[in-house]
From TrEMBL:
GO terms for molecular function: DNA binding. It holds the Pfam family Pyridox_ox_2. Keywords: DNA-binding. The keyword DNA-binding applies. InterPro entries: Pyridox_Oxase-rel, Split_barrel_FMN-bd. This is Dna-binding protein.
């Protein structure tokens, strides 16, 4: 059996690992059912919130999940790392975001009008 780090340590570790991978999966609700959508992410300048970009067709509208709980997951495979596998999941409240030019520029170009969210994680799980 191994010791599980305290929740604060898990969140700190998760926020440290997230920038190593460019994309992952967001778990949202759609018609009261779980729905997984691919997403790109960036750590916000504050280092405590996660900016998500979800393709325009993946959601019925970013406003539908504004203020709801969202889980976001990424792992070492998404980062192209295989030597020391890891996985991160963060859970928190998501808010619809109108990104600043700097926030928008942090993501690769996207041809359609994507949805942007700001996720404020309060729970995290790190698997190694």
């Amino acid at each position: 059996m191994y010791a599980v780090p305290p929740a604060d340590d898990q969140l700190t570790q998760a926020l440290r690992l997230l920038p190593r991978a460019p994309h992952g999966r967001a778990a949202v609700t759609r018609h009261a059912l779980p729905y997984i959508v691919p997403a790109w992410h960036r750590l916000a300048d504050d280092g405590r919130t996660v900016l998500l970009r979800i393709a325009a067709g993946a959601l019925e509208g970013g406003r539908l999940i504004d203020g709801t709980v969202v889980a976001y997951e990424t792992n070492s495979r998404d980062a192209g790392e295989s030597l020391h596998p890891w996985g991160v999941q963060v859970i928190g409240t998501a808010r619809a975001l109108v990104p600043s030019p700097g926030e928008r520029g942090a993501f690769p170009p996207h041809p359609a009008a994507p949805h942007y969210l700001r996720l404020t994680p309060t729970l995290a799980t790190v698997r190694r």
